[in-house]
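Troubleshooting entry. The earlier prediction with amidocarboxymethyldethia coenzyme *A gave an output that would not parse, so I re-checked the input for stray whitespace and re-submitted. Clean input:
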Amino acid sequence: FDGLKAQIESQIPSEIARLKALKTKYGQEKVGEVTVNMLMGGMRGIVGMLYETSLLDANDGIRFRGLTIPELQEKLPGKRDREPIPEALLFLLLTNKVPTEKEVEALRADLMERAEKFAKECAMNDAGNKSKKNVFDALRALPEETHPMTQLSAACLAMQNDSKFLKMYASGTMKKTEYWKYIYEDALDLIAKLPVVAAYIYKRSCVKEAARKSSEVPTVDASLDLAANFSQMMGFSSNECKELMRLYLTIHADHEGGNVSAHATHLVGSALSDPYLSFSAGLNGLAGPLHGLANQEVLKWLKEAQVALKGDYSAETVKTFVENTLKSGRVVPGYGHAVLRRTDPRYECQREFALKHMPDDEMFQLVSRLYEIVPDVLKATGKVQNPWPNVDAHSGVLLQHFGIKEENFYTVMFGVSRSIGCLSQLILSRAHGYAIERPKSVTSKWLEEKFQ
Ligand code: AMX
């Protein structure tokens, strides 16, 4: 299937011309100012990179190629039920065009073929003479209790051997204008392989019950969509869980370029490191508690709340519990955001999903109660810029309802989804000839001398 690749290729000349004209016409214009506060505050607010696939507005939330999440739910084709499928989002991110049903189906089939080939080859090798070690051997060599995110990131590195970009670069025969073609192949391979590897990590290291555990290479059902197959490989075959997976993998895919996982992938990729190296770097950032690990932290915190509150979810007791979290020096996980200044639309669509599929779930009642209480408690601190919930405040409660109760796996699912956004931009960055990143840093002494 080269329909998507051909469409990207056909857009490259006009995109490059557009960027060139932008540079020629406005190259000397200023896009903002940098204050010492911004420099010392994690570069917050500095406009410093081009990132085409999505744009975050502090008040409207995320837009994927201009479309909000409700618009994605309405417009993207390929739906099995109500939720969009991530294949359709991937097509949109790469081409800036809502695909047709046929285009989505062709991309789905392509990804599933890549996934099936990968899983079959590894399984055959496992059963055979072991002449060639594979990523699952690398994972088996890690202690079972290694954090699942560390395993996923290590798996990316272990699969680098398969990089077509790496091989072509080493051959010395690849022109600069062809880089993107091999980045594309690696990116699609990686997007297809990650759910297989993640499902393996889940069944080997996360589940506790012997009956659900496995260290076999998962079996891919290439007739399914990517999300449904992921759910099935993990052992969850209900239509509701597959639908949740479609929503989950779609909404976590991209959140413009400055967040830690997207920026780390982008930065490392700018050195012409291949997608396996680049996305592994992104995953390492996603594994941090202030970023993707927050979804794991949220569920731990909700469980703590359940124990402490003993079913009493009255406003007063819940408020005291939240205040005690702050008093103990911790952040309230799942609340706050570096850029957003409203309830995350990704939280809202997950809430809608819960209202439709599991309104009576006890933990969902707690999450709803927290939504009423936490913002005021955070506002009262006088320092939190955004007291509203982010995506991570809601994802765990949905997953646990459908049986995915092992919260140390949640960030891995985030990572599987994030590959779609980060790797789409990586393809475009090489296609459009973006420069290697090299911002200037200064010492605090340099600042003092400048202003004293
Ligand atoms: N609970 C307690 N305090 C919080 C808070 C929260 N949820 N959110 C922000 N604050 C505090 C900060 O720690 C900071 O305190 P300090 O001045 O004493 O260091 C102060 O409020 C100002 O911070 P801010 O400008 O509002 O936020 P930020 O841009 O520095 O950080 C974020 C953003 C997400 C790291 C922060 O809100 C946070 O720690 N939230 C909890 C963790 C979380 O949910 N992360 C997931 C984010 C989404 C994602 O990437 N998946």
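This one parsed fine. The mean pLDDT is 96.
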